[in-house]
Each structure stands twice: as structure tokens, then as C-alpha cells.
Write a structure and sequence with these properties.
68 residues; mainly alpha; 3 helices; flat
Length: 68
């Protein structure tokens, strides 16, 4: 099972779980868009950018905003 298959399974079994995917392959962005709650992070990416995006989404969820 690859990451996209796992994301699809999680989406089906646990629809409230937020999903973030990363990839170094540009052509899979459309598939990721169907499965992710966050934009696809293309490798390589700065870890600080990923951490900031996760913090931003968690804060939005706490406020009941569009990070959900």
C-alpha cells in the first residue's frame, strides 16, 4: 500500500481525519487534491513550511474556521 492508497482508505474509514500528502512527482497532484485537506507539498520542501501549515490549520480548527 502506498501513501495515496492509505489516504484513500483513511478517507473512507475515518472521514473526519485530516490528510496531508507529500510527493516528488508532479503528475500526482490531481489525485492528491481529491484526498488531501491541505495542498500537496511537493518534495523537497522546507520542514519549517510544513510545520507552519500544520500549525495554521490546527489553529483554524480550534477556532472553527476553514482549516477543518
Amino acid at each position: 500500500m502506498n501513501g495515496f492508497e492509505l489516504a484513500r482508505w483513511v478517507r473512507e474509514q475515518y472521514p473526519d481525519v485530516r490528510i496531508l500528502l507529500t510527493s516528488g512527482v508532479a503528475r500526482i497532484a490531481q489525485t492528491a487534491g481529491e484526498l488531501c485537506d491541505l495542498p500537496l507539498f511537493k518534495k523537497p520542501y522546507p520542514h519549517e513550511q510544513l510545520a507552519e501549515e500544520i500549525r495554521r490549520r490546527l489553529n483554524a480548527m480550534r477556532r472553527g474556521g476553514p482549516g477543518r
